[in-house]
Amino acid sequence: MQFSDFDALSFDCYGTLIDWETGIWEALQPVVQRSQRSVSREEALVAFAELESAAQAASPLQLYPHLLARIFPELAEKFGVKSTLEDAQAFGQSVGNWPAFPDAAVSLHRLRKRYKLIILSNVDVASFCESAKQLEARFDYIFTAQEIGSYKPDPANFKFMARRLAEVGISKMKTLHVAQSLFHDHQEASRQGFATCWIDRRQGSGWGATKEIKDIPQTDWTFASMSAFADAVESE
């Protein structure tokens, strides 16, 4: 298998292009700073992963900002803090402020020379539009959880993307799915027959904001960053 086998790249956004862990941690500061005990970044991210994944499975139609606002009080409670409605709403609306990884925009620009670029994201349209401003890239197709009506890793999300791409002449076999999350993306993308490229941002430093899974799916390529992935594509 070679990179030249593909016509399109489908991307997870948050964790792959947008540094959601930094964004989450910064958005949690109002309650973390009120906690009577020391709360580490990793502890906060792991707690987030547990609550977010459960909420997405239970409420697939709820818009992502509302889902974040709903889990916020329980998240704050884990740190021994009572949250306010304003805290919860601010957390839910923070997605558009989460920073892009430094290598994301330039890597997308490099990859666009060879591929159509696609987004398959677990957020709502409005939140992604804010994040897209930081990515400075034109995406050919954007598929969100809001449009699909479910959250990854639900198989429906990958089936929806495959169906919509097929309608415009882009086959599953010609699409490489690029993502950081083994839980949200790689396990189901592989089951659905997509070739996969893992952007392993954490490099063995735990699971962070992504729910831990026992069975690690095999990926076709692994890179530590988007820039390393773009380098490999250009080198081929």
Offer a concise description of the structure.
By secondary structure, the protein is α/β, with parallel strands linked by helices. The chain is 47% helix and 11% strand.
Q: Could you list the spans in which at least 5 consecutive residues all have pLDDT below 50?
A: none
Q: What is the share of helical residues?
A: 40-55%
Rg estimate, integer Å: 17 Å
How many helical stretches? 11
Per DSSP, what share of the residues sits in E-state strands of 2 or more residues? 5-15%
Read across the widest sheet, the strand sequence of neighbours is: 3-2-1-4-5-6
Average of per-residue pLDDT values: 95
Helix-strand makeup class? alpha/beta
The separation of the N and C termini measures 12 Å
Number of strands: 6
Largest sheet report: 6 strands, parallel
From N to C, what is the helix and strand string? EHHHHHHEHEHHEHEEH
Shape, please?
Answer: globular
Labels describing this entry:
alpha/beta; 11 helices; 47% helix; globular; 236 residues; 6 strands
Description:
The chain has 236 residues and is of the alpha/beta class. Helices cover 47% and strands 11% of the residues. The chain has eleven helices and six strands. The chain has helices spanning 20-27, 29-32, 41-58, 64-78, 85-92, 104-112, 125-135, 145-148, 155-167, 182-191, 226-235; strands spanning 8-11, 116-121, 141-144, 175-179, 195-199, 221-223. It has a six-stranded parallel β-sheet with strand order 3-2-1-4-5-6, sandwiched between helices. Strand 4, helix 10 and strand 5 form a beta-alpha-beta unit. The longest helix is centred in the first third of the chain and has 18 residues, at 41-58. The chain starts with 7 loop residues before the first strand and ends with a helix. The mean pLDDT is 95.
